[in-house]
Fold:
Amino acid sequence: MSNSESKRGNPLTLGADREAALHHAAQIVLRAWKDFDHAREEEHVPSESLITRLHEPLPKSGMSAMAGLDLAAEVLDTSLAQSRPRYLAYIGSSGLEIGALADLLAHSYDVNLALDARAASLMDHQTLQWLGEFLGFPSGGGAFTSGGTISNITALVAARERAIPGSRFNGLGNAKPVVYCSADAHYSVRRGIELLGIGSRNVRSVPIDSERRLAPAALREMITSDISEGLTPIAVVATGGTTLIGAVDPIDAIADVCEEFGIWLHIDGAYGLPAAATQERASAFSGLARADSISIDAHKWMYVPKACSAVMVRDRNSLVSVFSHEEAYIPHDGALLNAVDYTLEYSRPLRALKLWLAFMVHGADEFRSAISQNLQQAQLLHDLATATPGFAVMPFRPALSIVPLRAVPEEVADLNAFNTALCDAIQSDGRVYLSQAVIDGEVWLRPCFTNFRTTEADVHETLAVIVELTKALRS
Ligand SMILES: Cc1ncc(COP(=O)(O)O)c(C=O)c1O
Structure:
């Protein structure tokens, strides 16, 4: 029976299929969760028939909800899933189970946070406060956004307005703005600067030290020289966990420089900031509370499904001064602000629900334990690789949970080609999923631990697979 035959009433309702469809979806989710409990011995690839289906034209009439769900499950099951415990590529999120349920609820109610949504708006606010408290940042306000890229851009808009008051209305005029970040800062900073009309040529790449952290003395010199030439510093972006190797810039020393010159300090903690909540890494983030703004992606190392990032500022007015509007169709209730008055997006889903429910169900301490576990896994892999002949690691321990390593067999002349081939071999083997990164012209494997499902045994198996495939390539 097709879906249209099985229902009565309005178009687009699930009709008689509804309850069965919900049960069926729950079964599919449970099957997936059980499957994610352990790594797969090989990746499943899409069948020929599925590939054919994925090239079919738009259906004129529908199929049953059950059949549609089964097809969707087949697509997902033959896709790369970051939820799997040995998905260690890029910086993954891991589909936290309670977060996935929260998304189902949030999307079913489909609350819009553009204006006031009553209890949901209070929850949104509470979650932001909790997140600030968890990380050690005195949040004066902010918003959940779709990702670190948008969070960084949102903070930089506020910074631009503070450095060049009125630029929101007047443009940049004759000002010659500059922004500072380390050479290893995420490229979303440059993209943001391009969008803000500042131009990425005006982003200063501040030199880094031997552990790839921004050098505050060099920053100070650059700022002094730029100001003497009539340039206007807009912001310094320090990274709390670089994407390349997880380096944490020295926030306190950078805050000293920013304070001296009155420059906005933004911390891009999209990846690494959750480590600030752990006992073992809190000190690496000292000075965080002095920042003007921070970005944090809960969809990275807080494990919830995408998309759930947050931008927070110490002074909420810094956002209001750039985003608030008076429009005929967006009523203001007296002096009360609408959410759209302090963030860029208008229609906005209740992203906070997944983090709120996760904090409610697991509590802050369980999050700390999971993050600590990932930190320990990184140290373990670093130690194991150090003790394995024919492999190189960075000449310092991982600051967070990224562990660059590379095969360096004696007889191989082109190590970059070899490590690229090794990464390809690992990806097609499927027992572990890794990505590569180029560090100072060298190709490295770049495992990153941000998954609550990863175990110590997975760390051992990861290195075993790398060693086995290295041997195979050498022969
Ligand atoms: C340090 C840092 N900032 C920003 C981003 C961009 O985040 P998103 O992908 O959520 O836009 C990333 C992504 O990996 C990152 O590592």
In short: Residues 91, 147-149, 186, 188, 239, 243, 268, 270-271, 297, 309 surround pyridoxal-5'-phosphate (CB under 6 Å). The chain is about 45% helix and 10% strand. The longest strand covers residues 232-239.
